[in-house]
Design brief:
With 629 residues, the protein is an alpha/beta fold. The chain is built from 14 helices and 30 strands. It has a nine-stranded mixed sheet with strand order 15-14-16-17-22-21-20-18-19, with helices on both faces. Strands 1-2-4-8-9-10-11-12 form an eight-stranded parallel beta barrel, surrounded by four helices. Strands 13-24-25-30-27 form a five-stranded antiparallel sheet, with helices on one face.
Length: 629
């Protein structure tokens, strides 16, 4: 059952349990999380927070509301001598404390015992349960972590000062391995000690944590493992990372569909038996800062996708007076019939589409792209550029199995089974280089220098697009079918000789490949012209046709029309979201084969064999349908 949980700020001056209870009923929620401010060593201030918490927990529990306490894991304010988390660049965090500091460990455990004595149903650590994306940069090289690294290096001395260049110097090395092991073990040990503290008071209380990008890779551990340790003998719980508010200001270079895909990717990494919540955060509320439609698109898309047990949905403004911002709750109420229709048509079906191969932990043995050799960039290796290429061009994706075909950039290609090559595989130049070194013929003869291309010429279209991205000069096998070419503009206005930009290739063993002459991750910080264009979309679709890959649902020519497709033995269900400011007058959806009947959700449509003609889609709207043979 998909559940909606709502967080509220305990210490807001407008905190009103009765009003919150009424709002929870409007949302149809029976779970609340009481959010606390950062812990504070000022005993008077902290005591006031705990006193208010001790009143709120029984209020909600007695009224049948499952009640959680949500607070910061490493963040501590007030005077203290706890060891701060210290980034690889040497900067110390202002509020965040290192979990290897024994004094901080005892303080944190005492906090858990204090809250446990109030007997909430759940304790949940907030988003700072990590070493990355902090005010100190990424990682921790405090004296405790350096000592743990030294142990793993058999006593070998670490250089003084900044460790960033040492760990991010391109190729994997012993220092990187030592750090990842030390960091991961420090996080796991912290979880063990906190669970022990909780069990000493009430072992029936569930204990979970919010995920963050770095806790899937660069912290040397993953969120699922930490959730299992925190859970003890209860069911593990994790709230994933990726929020609608990112899209408002293109946080981490994400559009809303990229945020949704980030959550789907993480969900695919989680093991069995864990409760998974998405991050339905519309911060900073009210709607004038983050539209409610972003939150509703996010919620409905993940309901369609499946695999989520619910959402932590920030439907109530943390600090505003009750009644000031009602738009999030109003839209949730209006969409409740749609949620039921989604459940009817999509539950029980399996996602279908292009398999995105994205490793959970790739930092350990990855050659770091040059664009990420900066301490303020490194953590962003977490994000999937391959996924972005697919969904920004209108293709449905999956993160398990082989899909109808596959895409793998850089070291993620090591995930791909050789059996998948015959289905067709889309590669960036780094992935092609890795496969070539393994003896797999992908049609690549040589890789030359990097250069900044001005244009990409598409021969079949007889046209070019502006790109202004770094690409590689390459030489292909003679029988490779070159689909586009790059060139740059000289100072005198003339163009350099064109080098292959993309090519299609089939090898003697039946392997089929579409290869791009750029490194996917190098595009993360540049313009995304290379990743999203009508010609790129058409090029990928043409390659899929040559692969023999039947794309379940595809719509050409609509920027940010996001597609999720699911199948069972008798039907195909398709969800579409127009995440763009323009209406789509008559969306035309090409299906994998001809169907004879259609049932619509939130739209009208005309089915013509393998093509669906939908009614007009307004900006930020949803349409869905189910077709049968």
């Amino acid at each position: 059952m998909y559940r909606t949980a709502v967080p509220v700020m305990l210490t807001s001056k407008h905190f009103d349990p009765e009003k919150i209870l009424n709002d929870l009923k409007l949302v149809g929620s029976d779970r609340v999380f009481l959010a606390l401010p950062p812990l504070n060593t000022d005993t008077c201030r902290q005591k006031a927070v705990f006193e208010k918490l001790a009143e709120a927990i029984p209020f909600f529990k007695k009224r049948g509301i499952e009640t959680g306490v949500w607070f910061w894991a490493f963040m501590v304010e007030g005077e203290n001598n706890f060891t701060p988390i210290t980034g690889f660049g040497g900067k110390q965090s202002s509020p965040e404390k290192c979990p290897l500091d024994p004094a901080f460990l005892e303080y944190a455990a005492d906090t858990v015992r204090t809250i446990a004595a109030m007997h909430p149903d759940i304790i949940l650590y907030d988003d700072d349960f990590r070493f990355g994306f902090l005010d100190s940069g990424n990682g921790c090289q405090c004296r405790y972590h350096r000592a743990e690294m030294k142990k793993r290096l058999d006593g070998k001395e670490l250089p003084d000062g900044d460790l960033f260049e040492l760990l991010f110097s391109g190729k994997p090395n012993e220092y990187r391995a030592a750090y990842l092991d030390a960091a991961g073990e420090s996080m796991k040990d912290f979880c063990r000690k906190m669970r022990e503290a909780l069990d000493s008071v009430d072992p029936t209380i569930r204990f979970g944590a919010c995920s963050c990008m770095s806790v899937w890779d660069m912290d040397g551990v993953d969120s699922f493992t930490l959730a299992e340790i925190l859970a003890g003998n209860t069911k593990p719980l994790v709230r994933l990372i990726g929020a609608p508010y990112w899209a408002e200001n293109r946080g981490w270079n994400c559009r809303l569909q990229n945020v949704i895909e980030t959550e789907r990717m993480e969900q695919s990494w989680c093991g069995e038996g864990i409760e998974i919540l998405s991050e339905g955060d519309a911060s900073p509320r009210p709607r004038s800062n983050c539209p409610a439609n972003y939150l509703e698109i996010f919620d409905t898309a993940l309901r369609v996708s499946g695999g989520f047990d619910g959402i932590l949905k920030y439907a109530i403004d943390y600090y505003a007076k009750p009644g000031y911002e009602t738009g999030y709750i109003e839209r949730h109420e209006r969409h409740r019939p749609l949620y039921q229709e989604i459940e009817t048509h999509f539950d029980g079906k399996t996602p279908v589409g292009v398999r995105v191969y994205e490793r959970m932990a790739k930092f350990a043995d990855m050659r770091i792209p040059k664009a990420f050799e900066r301490s303020d960039h490194a953590d962003n290796l977490f994000f999937s550029v391959a996924s972005k290429l697919m969904v920004d061009n209108g293709f449905p994706t999956v993160y398990n199995g082989e899909g109808v075909c596959g895409i793998a950039f850089a070291e993620n290609v090591t995930l791909v089974p050789e059996s998948a090559y015959k289905n067709g595989l889309i590669l960036d130049i780094r992935a092609a280089e890795i496969l070539t070194a393994k003896g797999i013929d992908v049609g690549l003869k040589a890789i030359g220098e990097s250069y900044k291309a001005s244009y990409e010429f598409f021969g079949e279209e007889g046209d070019k697009t502006f790109v202004w991205n770094t690409v590689r000069a390459i030489e292909t096998a003679e029988n490779a079918d070159i689909r586009s070419r790059f060139c740059c503009k000289r100072g005198d206005g003339t163009l350099t000789p064109k080098t292959p930009g993309s090519y299609y290739y089939e090898n003697a063993d039946g392997g089929k490949f579409l290869v791009f002459a750029f490194e996917g991750y190098e595009l993360y910080y540049g313009r995304d012209n290379l990743l999203r264009s009508y010609y790129r979309s058409a090029e990928i679709k043409a390659a899929c046709n040559r692969f023999g890959a039947k794309i379940p649902a595809y719509a050409y020519g609509n920027p940010d029309l996001y597609v999720i497709a699911k199948k069972d033995a008798s039907a195909l269900s398709v969800g579409l979201w127009n995440i763009f400011a323009d209406e789509i007058f008559e969306p035309v959806i090409e299906l994998d084969k001809a169907y004879t009947s259609i049932e619509c959700i939130g739209c009208t449509a005309r089915l013509e064999g393998n093509t669906v003609h939908l009614s007009q889609m307004q900006p930020f709207s949803f349409a869905g349908f189910e077709v049968r043979e």
